[in-house]
Write a structure and sequence with these properties.
This protein is mainly α and 145 residues long. It is 46% helix and 8% strand. It is elongated.
Length: 145
């Protein structure tokens, strides 16, 4: 403690650190309070986000986690080495012709089935005319999709 507060051990009645104006050990309590507050705010945010999933107007899709998204449901299962486009087709078979997929912080809406894709492109052509480039999708599809 003498190294943290210069001169604290020199005067006989010094119970406070003259440099910071705090009693010895107050920095530890401040750290604990800030960590507890941060944990509380983070858990509240995650809880609200999980509750919002049920009320969301998004199409159905696999469950997702805050940082990795739905990546765990896109990984191949044991013994099944499907190419990425077949894995996405399998997701469409489970969740329907329109399903949502979270990759990291990005939301993707997957359309499967000829009629669904045709209707979406005909009715909402201006929405689909400019798709964002997502590096992970570019790597997976090798710039062919």
């Amino acid at each position: 403690a003498a190294g943290q507060c210069p001169g604290a051990g020199l005067s006989p009645g010094a119970g406070r650190c003259p440099a910071a104006g705090l009693p010895p050990g107050a920095g530890q309590w401040l750290t604990v309070v800030l960590l507890a507050l941060s944990a509380f705010l983070l858990s509240r945010y995650l809880l609200q986000r999980c509750r919002a999933r049920g009320r969301s107007r998004l199409p159905p899709g696999p469950p997702y986690w805050p940082l990795i998204g739905s990546l765990l449901s896109c990984l191949p299962r044991r013994g099944a080495q499907l190419p990425p486009h077949l894995q996405l087709t399998a997701l469409g078979e489970v969740y329907g012709d329109v399903c949502s997929l979270h990759l990291g912080g990005r939301l993707l809406v997957l359309l499967s089935g000829f009629r669904m894709v045709r209707d979406a492109l005909q009715r909402n052509a201006e929405v689909f005319s400019d798709r964002p480039t997502i590096p992970l999708i570019t790597i997976i599809t090798q710039r062919k999709g």
